[in-house]
Design goal:
The chain has helices spanning 2-11, 13-24, 38-57, 63-75, 79-99, 106-150, 171-188, 205-220, 232-241, 254-264, 278-288; strands at residues 154-157, 160-166, 192-199, 224-228, 250-251. With 289 residues, the chain is an alpha/beta fold. The mean pLDDT is 80.
Length: 289
């Protein structure tokens, strides 16, 4: 009976596809699908149903399922599109088979359900597993990229590096800051590190504690930290909270911090006839950042 039902599905595939397309087009009404062009939605639907029939025809799972699932992730389509599409296919093909059967009793009905489930369920499982695996891989790569960007250590001059911090600092990110800071100090042979908190919206007790820990760790490996970007409201918050930042220098701007770093590395800025020399241009660019 399995071959008979499979042959029926394949022989009338055009009619089944039309029925399936008519039903799945209803998904276009949800908020996400509404943003997709009609051409893209139609071509993706046809590719989807072709992949389904290809699997049924070959009586097994195909690499086309994996490729299709991966393309949907790259396009940003939701998993619900796959699962709902397969459930619609299940309903459509069962309805089609039963309507064209001469006699339908409970045994026949159960057998049709069992056979169709045998086609559909493995496809659903394969699509969902592939989608989930690809999604987790994509998210993992994005998380790694964001982590690398969230606490960069930038060498700006021999023995001087800058770590610009932007956004909220939580415990996980503070740990990353500490690791990058220590690794970067060793890698770049930095004597002075400027930690710029201009882009940190809130400095509370926890944030200050993490910064103090990072500065102390840098001191233990023979370098010094300068905290820059102390805005007036941040200074007031630090004072009100009773936070002691006296163990390392603080400056209101990156420009001032960089001048201090030069002094700590036995360098200074000399006035020349050319007022737009390289050092001044560098300091001006730091002020604009």
């Amino acid at each position: 009976m399995d071959n008979k039902l499979r042959n029926m599905a394949l022989d009338y595939s055009n009619e089944i596809v039309d029925m399936w397309l008519e039903e799945i087009n209803g998904q276009k009404n949800n908020a996400y699908m509404a943003a997709i062009s009609d051409e893209m939605f139609d071509s993706t639907n046809r590719e989807f149903v072709n992949v389904i029939f290809s699997s049924i025809e070959k009586q097994g799972l195909t690499s086309e399922l994996d490729d299709f699932s991966e393309r949907l992730i790259n396009l940003g389509w939701p998993l619900s599109y796959l699962t709902e599409g397969m459930q619609i296919f299940r309903r459509v093909i069962i309805d089609f088979i039963l309507k064209r059967s001469e006699q339908v009793d409970s045994d026949y009905f159960s057998e049709v359900l069992r056979k169709v489930d045998g086609w559909v369920d493995p496809i659903i499982n394969r699509l969902v597993n592939e989608y989930s695996g690809s999604w987790e891989s994509t998210v993992s790569l994005q998380r790694m990229a964001l982590q690398e960007l969230s606490a960069p250590l930038i060498p700006v001059m021999e023995n001087i590096t800058i770590m610009p911090l932007i956004g909220t600092i939580d415990t996980e990110r503070a740990k990353l800051v500490m690791e990058n800071l220590l690794d970067g100090v060793i890698k770049h042979n930095a004597e002075v590190v400027l930690i710029d908190i201009t882009g940190v919206p809130v400095v509370d007790t926890m944030v200050a504690h993490h910064i103090i820990q990072a500065a102390e760790a840098v001191r233990l490996i023979g370098s010094r930290c300068i905290l820059v970007g102390i805005r007036p409201e941040i200074a007031q918050t630090i004072v009100n909270l009773g936070i002691d930042l006296g163990k390392f220098p603080t400056k209101s701007s990156l420009r001032k911090g960089f001048k201090t770093a030069l002094e700590l590395t036995n360098r200074h800025i000399e006035e020349t006839e050319n007022k737009h020399d390289d050092i001044e241009r560098m300091l001006d660019s730091l002020d604009r950042e």
